[in-house]
Write a structure and sequence with these properties.
With 428 residues, the chain is an alpha/beta fold. Helix content is 29%, strand content 24%. The strands form six sheets. The protein has a four-stranded mixed sheet. β8 and β9 form a beta hairpin. α1 packs parallel to α3 and α7 runs parallel beside α9.
Length: 428
């Protein structure tokens, strides 16, 4: 059941303070996969508790892996299986978590049995065929049940052999990340060659960073080639960084209102590429202070820019919200792949900007946003957490902005609206 629309309260002065976003979803789910494959017990601290991580926890348990989640302590304890999936059969339900279904499909290829992975209606529209073909090239009996390149997926495996496979890089970097994390537990050396442009490269770098923390190395002899030799993941205690994608909303609040927001635990050297969003804000006229273990954004007069956001595409909607308050148009490039996210994000953004009376243009690779008068409206969110969180920022300056189905933020940030109110000193 959908909740009542959330009315955003405008602020009367610039937003100033410290924001505390939860642990990174991307890092939490990667660390759980790697810890599950490690040879021993690992502990993940500051782990995110959200729908996307909950379906990962439940699925790992169904695969026979001992996972204990203490949400009150933000802690996940995992007893690794040393690369050998215990369950011979499992039914996994992943809602609309792209990281979960793609990472677990690759992990299931390490098993000896039959595994079925499925999700909600939107999940059944999201591509996974390129990963399935890569596994099939390695000899794994994997298939999309409806033969349409989307879930549900069935994996019948007798272990993941070594060899060479190819994968398309233009749809989602999660296909490559899933293969990379499973690769050390294959029976032989695994070579992965990339076809076409690899989108969201920082997320692959993040994957390698997590693997390295658990003692595994990845070779990259060429730009389009990754090589992983058989290795054993070492159990470790892992501290999950605050979510840089979630932090983007608070940095944007500073930009939109001319305020100043600091986020602890995120710095220029973060594993998460989305910290690069603050550099985009800097191009628009904000000031950025990079600390050893914090990042601060101070708002200033905002200018429209022309920007390639391929590497930080999860922050496109956040930038759209900021762009509405700039002194000229903003052109966002090289993000065609976001049409395959939780919703078609380009189409959804254009529809909701139109609802606000704002002019915008769609391009094959992105969109252009033109600042102008904004009228009150109830924003449809398409069950996409990032639509809800990004468009809520507009309501900090424009009265009458309501967010439909605000509970969709539970996918990655259940307490978003509470935290936004705390930072802004408002309440609904």
């Amino acid at each position: 059941m959908m909740s009542e629309p959330y009315l955003v309260q405008p602020v009367s002065e610039p937003v100033r303070g410290r924001a505390c976003p939860p642990g990174s979803k991307s890092l939490t789910n990667r660390a759980m996969i790697v810890a599950a494959l490690a040879d021993g017990a690992s502990q993940l601290d500051n782990a995110l508790d959200s729908q996307d991580t909950q379906v990962m926890v439940e699925s790992l348990r169904r695969l026979g892996i001992d996972v204990r989640h203490d949400a009150s302590q933000k802690r996940v304890a995992v007893q690794g299986c040393a690369g050998r999936v215990p369950a011979k059969k499992a039914e996994l339900w992943l809602e609309n978590s792209g990281t979960s279904i793609r990472f677990l499909t690759a992990l299931c290829a390490l098993g000896h049995g039959t595994y079925h992975l499925d999700g909600n209606k939107r999940m059944r529209e999201r591509p996974i065929g390129d990963l399935i073909e890569a596994l099939r090239e390695l000899g794994v009996d994997a298939r999309c049940d409806l033969d349409n390149g989307c879930p549900p997926v069935t994996v019948r495996s007798e272990g993941l052999p070594g060899g060479t496979t190819h994968i398309c890089g233009s749809v989602s970097s999660q296909f490559l990340s899933g293969l990379l994390m499973a690769a050390p537990c294959a029976s032989g050396r695994l070579t992965i060659r990339i076809r076409g442009e690899l989108v969201s490269q920082p997320y692959v770098d993040m994957t390698q960073g997590v693997m390295a923390r658990f003692g595994v190395t990845v070779e990259r002899p060429a730009e389009d080639c990754y090589v992983v030799h058989p290795q054993t993941y070492s159990p470790t205690d892992y501290l999950v960084e605050p979510d840089a994608s979630a932090a983007s909303y608070f940095f944007a609040a500073a930009a939109i209102t001319g305020g100043e927001v600091r986020v602890e635990g995120l710095s220029y050297h973060s594993l998460q590429g989305d910290i690069g969003f603050v550099e985009v804000l800097e191009q628009m006229g904000c000031r950025v202070d990079w600390g050893a273990d914090y990042t601060t954004v101070q708002g200033g007069p905002l200018h429209g820019i022309d920007v390639d956001m391929n590497a930080i595409s999860d922050t496109v909607q956040t930038l759209v919200a900021v762009a509405l308050f700039a002194d000229g148009p903003t052109r966002i490039r090289n993000v065609a792949h976001i049409r395959h996210k939780e919703t078609n994000r380009i189409e959804a953004v254009l529809t909701e900007l139109s609802r606000l009376g704002v002019k915008a243009e769609e391009h094959e690779d992105g969109l252009t946003v033109y600042p102008g008068p904004i009228r009150p409206a109830t924003i449809e969110t398409y069950d996409d957490h990032r639509m809800a969180m990004s468009f809520a920022l507009i309501g900090l300056k424009v009265p009458g902005i309501r967010i439909a189905n605000p509970e969709c933020t539970s996918k990655t940030y259940p307490e978003f609206f509470r935290d936004l109110e705390a930072l802004c000193g408002t309440s609904s």
